[in-house]
Amino acid sequence: RNRQLVKLRGEDSVTLDGEAVELFANIALPDDLPEARKAGAAGVGLFRTEFLFLNREDLPSEEEQVEAYQKVIRGMRGRMTTIRTADIGGDKMLSRESLALLADSDFEEANPALGLRALRFCFAFRPLFITQLRALMRAATAGSVRLLLPMVSSSSDVHEVRACIEEAAAQLEAEGLRYRKNIPLGGMIELPAAVAGLSDLLPLLDFFSLGTNDLVQYTLAADRTNAYVSRYCDDCHPAVMRFIAESIRRVTAAGKEISVCGEMAGRPEMTPFFIGLGCSALSMDPAHIPTIKERIRALSAEDCEIFARGVLRRRSAESVREALADFNDSLK
Ligand code: PEP
Ligand code: MG
């Protein structure tokens, strides 16, 4: 079995009827790179940079960040690296010591998942964000890079990010440092507001990525880390399936690229649904890449399209699960 998967590394990720689906890797630290390369990833679809900021008592300096980002970019040898700006907050909060370097008083939130997280945290502690953007623009001279914004909730978020990018660029310019400014900018679709507001976001961003983990959490108002409500965190809920479908259809119709980067992307029973919607890129833990590639090579995109249409007519999570199971059984 293992030899079979190693052999798959050199094979194309393409359906029986010729639709290509690129498989990218999700990584947290530069150390995850060898695994991504071994799995034959087409690139990095999600570099969760907040992990550079966690489990320490200080903050990563600009130089440390430049080095970490360049290591990943160079390591991908020309393949695209999608770097997400820090998604700090929620269940990924800085240590008390690191926070004390940013905030004057003790920082406490009753409801962190709905609090200062991701872009909101970065805007609240702007010097931290500017430092990261400077590091990213400096590192981007090393190869193929694009930036991805977490928890985009409105067009204002994007405008505020662009203002921060301008500020960082002006500083680098004045200091005579080498940097790249025109880096493609994408947004995570992980809030219901991003799905409903797609027509406002589409003209402002170059590409999109579906963060299904948070899309499930925020659509169903169920904390993804709270075991008491885990049965409500159900990625087969019809509302979630319809949000995913709407996002993929609208972004694709606008001629822009959309990938799926939440855990759902690495679940083989979901693969026919994504292919049926016309999604041509999935990003996942590298460990799942061979299994998903094997699944894609056994599917017909035409059958998947009919299947996805049927899934979207289901009226309960149980019924969606049944449809997924039936289709998967039919492949055996
Ligand atoms: C997601 O929300 O699906 C996602 C990919 O981001 P994270 O899991 O890091 O929140
Ligand atoms: Mg997320």
From TrEMBL:
Record domain PEP-utilising enzyme C-terminal: where: 6-299
Keyword flag Transferase: yes
Entry cofactors: Mg(2+)
Subcellular location(s) per record: Cytoplasm
Keyword entries, A-Z: Cytoplasm, Kinase, Magnesium, Metal-binding, Phosphotransferase system, Sugar transport, Transferase, Transport
Listed EC numbers: 2.7.3.9
Catalytic activity: L-histidyl-[protein] + phosphoenolpyruvate = N(pros)-phospho-L-histidyl-[protein] + pyruvate
Primary residence: cytoplasm
Its job: General (non sugar-specific) component of the phosphoenolpyruvate-dependent sugar phosphotransferase system (sugar PTS). This major carbohydrate active-transport system catalyzes the phosphorylation of incoming sugar substrates concomitantly with their translocation across the cell membrane. Enzyme I transfers the phosphoryl group from phosphoenolpyruvate (PEP) to the phosphoryl carrier protein (HPr).
Similarity section: Belongs to the PEP-utilizing enzyme family.
Protein name, UniProt field: Phosphoenolpyruvate-protein phosphotransferase
Species in which this protein is naturally found: Sutterella faecalis
Shown segment, full-protein numbering: 287 to 618 of 629
